[in-house]
Amino acid sequence: MIAGTVFGSDGNGQTIKPSNSTALTIYGQSDIGYIYGAAFSSTGRWGINTINTADAILSINGDVKIVTIDSTSTARNMLYQDANGVIKKSAVPSGGVSGSGTTSYLPKWSSSTGLGNSSAYDNGGEILISTTEDAGDYKLQVAGAIYTTSTITTGGVNGETQKPWKLGSRKAATVALDATQYIEVEVNGVLYNIALVTIL
User: Fold this and answer.
1) What is the Cα 177 distance to its own chain's centre?
2) What is the DSSP pairing of strand 175-187 with strand 190-199?
3) Distance of alpha carbon 108 from alpha carbon 128, whole angstroms
4) Burial grade of 128 (CB within 10 A; 0-12, 13-18, 19 or more)
5) Using one digit for the tens of pLDDT, what is the confidence trace for 30-56?
6) Pairing label, strands 98-99, 114-122
7) 166 phi, psi to nearest 5 deg
8) Could you tell me the pTM of the whole model?
9) How far apart are CA 29 and CA 48, in angstroms?
10) Cβ(153)–Cβ(135) below 8 Å
11) CA 17 to CA 15: how far, in whole Å?
């Protein structure tokens, strides 16, 4: 039942006009889903699955599928949602991130909006700093001196427990030699035995 006037086809389609000229609701099959039309300040407002239509010409409660969108425009526009949930169009802001880089180099910020190469190089399984020459099966390789204010912890060898160590400057002291154990250090393929001592 329709309370109002239904106009037949007059060459421009059909018109349904409610009697009170303020709101129109069209329900889907089995009353599932509806289209709601209302007037606010002499402006038509429409809602799909919602009667909250005061903020926009069309308000939709649910997912929206766009089958085709105009791709002929060359303007750089974007869609955004305002504080009321209304989808609006705006020009893409100028500026943004610029710059260039080289394959496998980790990027760094060269300015507040620009990117460039850092000194770190990723060869696919290892990180090389200040070099691109792979020295072997080492996850981290550095061409240059390394400075630390704390300890370096290495994995235990042959089942030994991991222990931190730190290399520092040479100090003068009276020591007692530990004759029961030593540390093996390999440098450029040469194995060195470093004795352990106790400072007296």
Assistant:
1) 56
2) antiparallel
3) 15
4) buried
5) 666 667 676 555 567 788 888 887 778
6) parallel
7) -150, 130
8) 0.41
9) 14
10) no
11) 6
Would you state the structure tokens that stand for residue 64, as one six-digit string? Answer: 């929206």
Tokens of 174: 């009276």
| Residue in this structure with the two tokens 């709101």, named with its chain if needed | 23
Q: Who's near 47: CB < 8 A, 6+ residues apart? A: 35, 36, 37, 38, 53, 58, 59, 60, 61
Residue range 56-101, pLDDT digits in tens: 888 888 887 766 655 555 567 778 888 877 777 777 777 777 788 8
Interacting residues of 114 by C-beta distance below 8 A, sequence separation 6+: 97, 98, 99
Q: Can you read off the two tokens belonging to residue 96? A: 């943004």
81: its two tokens = 């949602």
